[in-house]
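Incident log, structure service

09:12 report received: a user says their structure output differs between two submissions of the same chain.
09:20 pulled the input from the user's history:
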Amino acid sequence: MIHGAFIFLIIKSKQMKKIILSVFAIAMIFASCENISEESLVVEQMPAIVKQESEIPCATMDVLQENILLNPAIKGRMALIEKHTEEYIENKEKYQGKLVNGKIVIPVVFHVIYKSASENLSLATLQGQIDALNEDFNLQNPGRNTIPSEFAAVEANVDITFEIQQVIRVQNSKKRSWRPNDDMKKSSKGGSDVVNPQEYLNIWVVNSMPYRGGQILGYAQFPGGSWTTDGVVMGANFVGSSHRTATHEVGHWLNLRHIWGDGGCGVDDFVADTPESDAANRGCPTYPDVSCGSADMTMNFMDYTNDSCLNMFTLGQKSRMDAVFATGGFRATMAD
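09:34 re-ran on a clean worker, output below:
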């Protein structure tokens, strides 16, 4: 693996995905949930799967890889978070009553960084995005009635509510686009500094993020990274009530992996009730779309299918998200 190199491939068929991912399957992001160690959290770069030729749905894993190269201590912090997550899932009764009766309210700070007036998203558009997040995390998604019965049994009400705390607007007349290197999170780089990340979810909205011939929709920072860059970054064109990119990225921010584990069959996303998948899905697949011997959960928010076809989190994913708010969790201060 060449240091710092990213590989973005346009893969147009599931059969081709299987061929490509079988080559990379040995580069598993996590070896096992049973024996968490710092070494098991080494992130190997997988080929990025794009929805369309011009779109890179999520750059989260690529950014994580680069950040670990720059600061290897992140790997150790993530190992401890994973250990805590495992303990929480195995001993939930010990944590009862320590999640504000199960209800979490997360204040959101939007940083709107724009060049032209059209990129300076209105408060109504930002509120529309908050409304979409609240639908998705509270069993109010309009497409829920399409979830197959096989998966409806594990559909979860994550029970998290998001509220706008503040909107910061920064006009940068020189910056036409941004790279996924966190510059937008620094006022010294023409962006906007993080605000109280231990209490607020910071979401940066930028005009565009072209990269390696594609357009990044968004990326997030997993629990365990630097507080100075903690949060989610979104392209302005992918923010609003009809978009689910924010739901996907907030899932990462709450310690969820891509549902296919960023590998092939046998690669783990650390969630027991999500079926194995050989790769990301795109479009709106007809159920059942089978890989690894079972139907893919293509409607899960942590897949890459079309926004209108993303409709659910699972009980196992909820447990992982709850763990970060529990006593000793990385985001426990948000539940105080």
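09:41 both user submissions now match this output. Likely a transient worker issue. Closing.
09:42 reviewer note: The chain has a mean pLDDT of 86. The helical segments are 14-24, 60-70, 73-90, 123-136, 149-152, 245-253, 315-325.
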